[in-house]
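Sequence, structure tokens reproduced for reference:
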Amino acid sequence: MRRSYAAISALYATLLAGCNSLFFYPEHAIVDTPEQHGIEYQTMQFRAADGVKLSSWFLPARATDGGKAKGTVLFLHGNAENISTHFRSVAWLPAEGFNVLALDYRGYGESEGTPSVAGIQLDIDAAMRALLARPDVDPDRIFIFAQSLGGSLAIAYVAHSAYRAHIRALVADSPFSDYHRIAREKMAGTWFTWPLQWLPYLTVDDTYSPAASVRAVRPIPLLLIHGDQDAVVPYQHSQALFEVAREPKELWIVPGAGHTRALANDEVRKRLVEYLERYAGS
């Protein structure tokens, strides 16, 4: 029995070495595009500060009464697949008058490189620079909307971004509060890994912990959205972030919604548009 436990420990020590890689499950294949849904889009490519070539999709806002977009949303997706399976989370925003830039992190979709938490901070920064260079983007009306892992990455990014002055608000949907905490919870979920819950504290890099960064998001408004039936990232993660964050902040716990599914509700979408319009006009 002692030998079996030692073997299991050795296995997980190996698996969790450089454990941040276990947060990423990229796919290169593009399985869907906005065009297939009658939505206009443009492919944008640019380079991160370390030279990695990144790919993204820009969905222009549809004509509004004033003829200009209400604002631009930088969309950061979750940890699996690529923008071709995630863009529908924001494909409805152009009809509401908002441009959208959907970014594929390094190693995802048609972006080069290998994903890492530190590397993706550079990717988000590059996407911000690309947006600020576009003549059809108001540099003072940029929002970040991020889901799951993207939400956690975005909190750390916004807290320390050189482009904070251009960000009107940050919306994080279903984020986790801390890399150690979520890794420990996942290991506690099965009998096989339950005895090894201590490993993440030794092997997971928590440098970009959302909980450690969220206070520094202020004065940028922060909105946290989470379904109370989220079986992937429990809604208590958003509650923990909300408690630490400083005003202005809001927390929407959506009854009956699962992981990143709150915006499947039309009323939640309407409420989000009103939130974006409030800060776009201020």
About this structure: The radius of gyration is 19 Å. Residues 1-18 have pLDDT under 50 and may be disordered. The longest strand covers residues 53-59.
